[in-house]
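Exercise 7.
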Amino acid sequence: MPSRLSVSAAIVAALCAGAAPAAWAGDAPVGCFKADDSRTGYLPSGPQPPLRLKWKFQSAETGDKIESYPSVDDGFSPALIHQGVVYVGGHDGRIYAIDARDGRKIWEFRTSDHVMPAPTLHDGLLFVGSMDGFFYALDAKTGAVAWKYESGYKIWNGTKYGGVRATPVITGGKVVFGG
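Solution. The predicted structure, written as tokens, is:
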């Protein structure tokens, strides 16, 4: 299992963006977790050492860092980098679009609970779930809600379970996700 990386809102993305070739950092056709629908994690090129910190980003509300786990879904939203934008969710209940060049917030969208899965981008929409029980389709440029779907909850032994934990996959014109 990879070691956990604690980042001040996507430092991993900042490190990669600062050291990566332009084609990887901003123009790659990668729109999902681990680079492709098979989740292989393969990129033909990527960041090259030496890596250096380029920027930091913190939650506006709490001032806290956003924690991201780059390779597995353990409850810390892995960041997605696409065409110079870092998309990442956090335990502060927000989904952020951050400029990969300078760390400037482009937009943020607030859910009612923390965001665990990595977002997926397809045809200008950012798909991501939240532990608030909703699955969201957001306009990738503005963060406006295109639509949302309530996934519901289940009560077991008096405890409420629910929320969207799994990173979505786009296949056959459909969005597939799990709770």
